[in-house]
Amino acid sequence: MNKIIKEQIAKLKPSATLAINEESSRLEKSGKKIYKFGFGQSPFPIPDSIVLALKNNADKHRYLPMQGLEELRFTIANYLNKNNNNNFNKENIVIGPGTKELMLLTQIIFKGDVLLPAPSWVSYQPQALIGKNKVHWIQTSSNSNWFPTAKQLEDKIKNIKSESLLLFINSPNNPSGTVCNNLQEIAEVAKKYKVIILSDEIYSQLNFNGQYKSISNFYPEGTIVSTGLSKWCGAGGWRLGFFAIPNQLENFKNSLKILCSESFTSVSAPIQYAAIEAYKVDHSKYLNSVKKILSFTANYVYENLRSNVINISKPEGGFYLFPEFNNANFSSSSEMCKDILNKTGVALLPGSDFGLDSSKMLARLSYTDFNGGNFLKNTLGSKKLDTADLEKNAPNIVAGVAALKDWSNSL
Ligand SMILES: Cc1ncc(COP(=O)(O)O)c(C=O)c1O
């Protein structure tokens, strides 16, 4: 049967993510308590005004332009210019059914080599394989906050000797939970070698500390900004993301528009109308409450887990932490995660899923296993959160972290 499957597709394997999820479901069915620290999904409800906008636009039934609804693109360009200090207009914006789809189409269009920092989000590499683009990993470490240094990037570029390079930078980062502190020096190297940057900013509004900085400010002509509704307002299932593409990459944008029209046609009309509300109106009150809960929870996990045998970088944004269990001795991080799951019920994803050497005992921990709606309601107006708030509103976090700590102590 393999004769009917393209070589690069047959090479794709179900990720360890899937294996852990299947094993979690099996154990849960058999009655075991599972702490779902493997999934990375917002636990919070979508802001009411955005849901209302969707209800009010349920009757929108026509196909929309392949690049996206004009008013939405105009609103998004203004939003980026205000919040990200960019200089986009509506023609620079392309709307897609989630950024994942736009990234896949990017790999299909792009001819060249792909630079991925390790760790990186799980889908970049398989998508490059689908597009038949060669991937070059840049191994990073906690010493540089899990981002490549300028020297690492430059050495790699010189080594590859390719005319056409695409670099992915994702800050705040999935899986490390860290923010990139050296955007400017990365941008300078990229500019020098005319590397295109795909700046995956899907967690940008969940940056715990102050204002978010985009690498596009340092290298506007060569950076594609990628973000959407999925993380900051809990609307992953709505499937709306977008790219902001500079004028200098117009040929790429035109090819992307063609692939959009030849694949999904255009994103669901009611969702696009509702997204105008998401980007036109100030949602900082909602976002501040969400970030307060996420950062408190993240810091609780960080403070309670880190030890002389568990290294973790301080959480700076998003949904994740990336602990390394230095006293664990398994044949791979995947074997370690299986052991943790079986002994404690805590589901984690192995570091190898994110491009790191499988001998490194790293795992991604998502601290979103709680009911965000209740947590928001119960702590509304309270100035500071404390451990009692967490025990009441996120009991799985408290119990799961204690179980993980016990497991580490027993090694
Ligand atoms: C780093 C990163 N990029 C992109 C995505 C995809 O988001 P979207 O829902 O826009 O396809 C995710 C979602 O898991 C992610 O974690």
Q: Give every kind of bound small molecule, once each.
A: pyridoxal-5'-phosphate
Mean pLDDT: 95
Number of helices, where a helix is a run of at least 4 consecutive DSSP H or I residues? 15
Distance between the termini: 45 Å
Q: Calculate Rg over CA atoms.
A: 21 Å
At CATH's second level, what is the architecture of the largest domain? 3-Layer(aba) Sandwich
Got a strand count?
14
Fraction of residues in helix? 40-55%
According to CATH, what is the topology of the largest domain? Aspartate Aminotransferase, domain 2
Question: Gist?
Answer:
This protein is α/β, with parallel strands linked by helices. It is 41% helix and 13% strand.
Can you give a write-up of this model?
- The chain has 411 residues and is α/β, with parallel strands linked by helices.
- The chain has 2 domains: 170 residues, Aspartate Aminotransferase, domain 1 (Alpha-Beta Complex); 232 residues, 3-Layer(aba) Sandwich (Aspartate Aminotransferase, domain 2).
- Helices cover 41% and strands 13% of the residues.
- Helix 3 runs antiparallel to helix 10 and helix 4 runs parallel beside helix 10.
- The chain is globular and about 55 Å long.
- The termini are far apart.
- The site of pyridoxal-5'-phosphate has 13 residues, from helix 5.
